[in-house]
Design a protein that fits this description.
This protein is α+β, with helices and mostly antiparallel strands. It has one domain. 25% of the residues lie in helices and 27% in strands. The protein has 2 helices and 6 strands, in the order βββαβββα. The longest helix has 21 residues. The radius of gyration is 15 Å and the shape is globular. 31% of the residues are buried.
Length: 146
């Protein structure tokens, strides 16, 4: 797999947020590399699942090797190029996250809030989290006003 050239669709991961309360995320993520969706139950779980996926694909390649106290065994998700994940929707919100680079021990890319048709770029995973949080709190504030 090290010689694999990935097409651009593998850069995009659909993040479906099903639950959001008190800044706690829960939902599913989909990528053409995965055979099925992957469930996450917290924000840290979402970030770790995404990083694990990126490491397994080696795309985009990490600028720095991650450090840990214990050596990591590579996890290889099942490849399935025929999965159509673009139609999956979260109960609270759906985001299309494209990671272009993994530099300075974080991610750079663009996130689209699919329900609103809005897109923003981000320079770090923290900025991505703030963008998703702002979309979710805006949606919650609007629902409470109705």
């Amino acid at each position: 797999m090290s010689g694999k050239v990935w097409s651009n669709e593998y850069r995009t991961t659909t993040v479906c947020i099903d639950e959001y309360s008190r800044s706690r995320f829960a939902g599913r993520l989909y990528n053409p590399y995965l055979e099925t969706g992957v469930r996450f139950d917290s924000l840290i779980d979402l970030l770790l699942q995404c990083e694990e996926l990126l490491d397994a694909m080696r795309f985009p390649q990490s600028f720095t090797a991650p450090r840990s106290f214990t050596p990591k065994q590579p996890v290889e998700p099942a490849k399935n190029n025929n999965i159509k994940h673009s139609r999956e929707q979260g109960r609270r919100a759906t985001f299309s996250v494209r990671i272009f680079f993994r530099q300075n021990a974080t991610w750079q890319g663009a996130v689209a809030w699919l329900e609103k048709g809005q897109e923003q770029t981000f320079r770090s995973a923290l900025e991505l989290i703030f963008l998703m949080h702002s979309a979710l709190t805006e949606g919650a504030a609007r629902a409470e006003a109705l």
